[in-house]
Automatic annotation (TrEMBL):
Classification via Pfam families: YjbR (PF04237)
Taxonomic source organism: Rhodococcoides corynebacterioides
Protein known as: MmcQ/YjbR family DNA-binding protein
Lineage, top ranks: Bacteria, Bacillati, Actinomycetota, Actinomycetes, Mycobacteriales
Length: 132
């Protein structure tokens, strides 16, 4: 079954996330399950999230899913901007609602970096130190 597209390509929040995610070494973008997925050999970030059992909800369409370090997860979820996304939360992922307040893009960079380090091959993680 083909999934419907669940994002707008002209979304300015997506543009900012895309810019940040794709500057990581070896990062590419692929639409999967109707959402932009940022990946190397594995997915390290997803733009948008689904409410389990309600694929028509748009509540978290403008959010960012990342895989944080295990010791950071609980602290992130204590913040009202973060939530447990359907399906990926069982594997430790969290979502950041980008529509609550103004996104802190430095924080987004840190979250992308953390998730990238957890999922990317060591050879690509090693290249992070060479970025300016």
């Amino acid at each position: 079954m083909k999934h419907p597209v669940r994002f707008r390509d002209d979304d300015p929040l997506l543009a900012r996330v895309r810019e940040r995610a794709l500057r990581l070494p070896g990062a590419t973008e692929k639409v999967s399950h109707g959402r932009p997925n940022f990946r190397t050999s594995k997915v390290f970030a997803i733009y948008g999230a689904t409410v389990k059992g309600d694929h028509h909800s748009t509540r978290w369409d403008r959010s960012l899913q990342i895989l944080p370090d295990a010791d950071e997860r609980a602290a992130l979820l204590d913040d009202e901007r973060f939530f447990e996304p359907a399906y990926t939360a069982a594997s430790g992922w969290v979502g950041l609602d980008l529509t609550i307040g103004t996104p802190d893009w430095s924080e987004v960079d840190e979250l992308l970096d953390m998730s990238f380090r957890r999922t990317a091959p060591a050879r690509l993680v090693a290249k992070l130190g060479t970025l300016s």
